[in-house]
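Quick question, first post here. What does this chain look like in 3D?
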Amino acid sequence: MRVAAARVGAMASKTSSRGKTPGYRCAECGWTTVKWVGRCGECQAWGSIGDNGPVGARTQAASVAEPAPIIADVDASAAQFRPTYVGELDRVLGGGLVPGAVILLAGEPGVGKSTLLLDVASRAAVSGNRVLYVTGEESAAQVKLRADRIGAIADTLHLTAETDLAQALGQVEALSPDVLIVDSVQTLSSTEVDGAAGGVTQIREVASSLISAAKKRNMTAILVGHVTKEGSIAGPRLLEHLVDVVCQFDGERHSRLRLLRAIKNRYGPTDEVGCFDLTENGIIGLADPSGLFIAGTEQQVSGTCVTVSLEGRRPLLAEIQALVSPTSGGQARRSVTGLDSSRMSMLLAVLQARASVFLMERDTYVATVGGVKLTEPAVDLAAAMALASAYADQPLSRRLVTFGEVGLAGEVRRVPEISRRLHEAERLGFTHAIVPPSPEPLTGIPSGFKVREVTTLAEALQTVFPRK
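> Answer (accepted):
Ran it through. Tokens below.
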């Protein structure tokens, strides 16, 4: 035991002499391990494990020119919103761009991030701002071709193709722009740190340098970020913590509709959604996108039902279509597009157990119109009624909307903003609705609009199929 104690003491003294603690630490979450590994065992981040570093070193206090002022005396006029004149983007950001703010815009390849930001850059330049657009994925000539196509040409819009961080910061020093756009943060690299462009170390260095320049110059910086196969933002999670706003740009590859959501916003709400239409001549904001998600035909067809979903605080009317057919043999087939497949499986079980709609041995196909993705539980009732309509081969009224969450016991649960949903339905020409029960009497219902409150799925189906 004395020998073992002597070895431990020798190791401790050796570690102390080097000034480092034994083991390794994750730079993302602080998880420690006695040996180096490539992936963190806590946050699952790759390449974030490093040496613990020296111990005992402490940052000493420095003298300040003047003490911190009282918060009431701080001048906030320099941090006022500046509109981008892209209405849907201003809606998501909470009013526009804030000087000194750093915005991270992430999305899948080809969704339209560069087109949107080039349009924003030209509008900001036309309104009197000096804008610097740094592209690391394309040449300047390629960006110029897109700018000519969408009409994004302005006298104060500067364009440079750089992949070196030092050169990009040099352009910032020379031009002193009001708005900086970097497309993308994964393409820039610094010679001061090791690693390839897009790696964890490089992204951390690039982001820290650009954020420092934005705060120092009171310059708005918009960074484009890539996403992984799972849909999360590529790079260390530290990147999302450092920036002020994180926006996600989504859309189906075969659809022109694009949705912009704020995941994090230090200056505004995170429950707003911006809708855009990606065309050959650029990207256009859609102030009223509800009509895109409803079939234009007036013919009554079984298996269709219209619902009202809330995307943030914006009500959107969408149509759900269902098709039921006999199984040709073997296991019944399930196909779901635009909805959560697990919730659709649950609805099939609830329909059979609580409403005697036997679909477990039939092929079922459920899809949304227009390529919209509906994730809100309030669309459960409309999906269930579309399936029941297809099963009974009896169409629903084209002037009917319905929404509500369906539970495993077959109950219809309350959803928020019932009045707002009804007003949106009435505005688009619908005349009656089936909704979940409200704890208080509904107020503000449009005149002539009929509303039926139901407590169970069976009651809702009995309302529209009284003889089935």
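The domain at 79-287 is CATH 3.40.50.300 (Rossmann fold).
The chain is about 30% helix and 25% strand.
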